[in-house]
Specification:
lyase activity, 13 strands, single chain, alpha/beta, 24% helix
């Protein structure tokens, strides 16, 4: 069966490069802002490039925050990429201005504490055991990052032994930051899998395989 994937078009993100990369996994990919298509698809990808505030305004403009919430309430897979991952958190702070995010995860997106910003280029990641997102990828593989902001502190810890804790992957640029999250139907990467060569292609194929 060919999986149906929608890449949400809300005016931000490398839509066509992401589309081509996901199509190479064998999925049928549509780029659209249509809420019905986004809700009905087997998988939804939320891209994002640029400022947190601008991305949130664009996302709310097409009802993307509600679409994400409805999909997750029904256990429907969502993958956030770059700022599309950042907007899933409670808030972002840029130039002293705080903007509310989608609030799917607690935490704040803030400027990286590093001598050189933006963090642009290839970097390794520290993957937790049991990851499905990084299955089949060698530990030393590098992924492509372009960002000045990130989540430096992961605070979500389930208060019940019956709830599976999220798997959080880290990377380091000046200080550690969250590079990827696997949390039930909600997965996300700070790096760009569509620009990360064979390793990124494997990440996308691993996600599509869960749909």
């Amino acid at each position: 069966m060919q999986h149906r994937v929608v890449i949400l078009d809300y005016g931000s993100g490398n839509l066509r490069s992401a589309q081509r990369a996901v199509e190479r996994t064998g999925a049928h990919v549509t780029v659209t802002d249509d809420p019905h298509a986004a809700l009905d698809a087997d998988g939804l990808i939320v891209p994002g490039v640029g400022a947190f505030d601008a991305c949130m305004r664009g996302l709310r403009g097409v009802g993307g925050d509600r679409i994400i919430g409805k999909r997750l309430a029904g256990g429907r897979p969502v993958l956030g990429i770059c700022v599309g991952m950042q907007v899933l958190f409670e808030r972002g702070v840029e130039h002293g201005v705080a903007t509310d995010g989608c609030g799917e995860w607690p935490g704040t997106v803030e400027r990286l504490h590093a001598p050189i910003v933006p963090h642009m280029g290839w970097n390794t990641v520290d993957v937790p055991g049991g990851s499905r997102l990084f299955a089949g990828i060698d530990p030393g593989e590098r992924f492509y990052f372009v960002h000045s902001y990130g989540v430096l502190d992961w605070t979500l810890t389930p208060d019940s032994p019956y709830i599976t804790p999220p798997l959080v992957t880290w990377s380091t640029h000046g200080t550690p930051f969250v590079a990827a999250v696997e949390n039930g139907p909600l997965w996300a990467t700070q790096f760009h899998p569509e620009k990360s060569g064979d390793a990124g292609a494997t990440v996308l194929a691993n996600w599509v395989a869960t749909l």
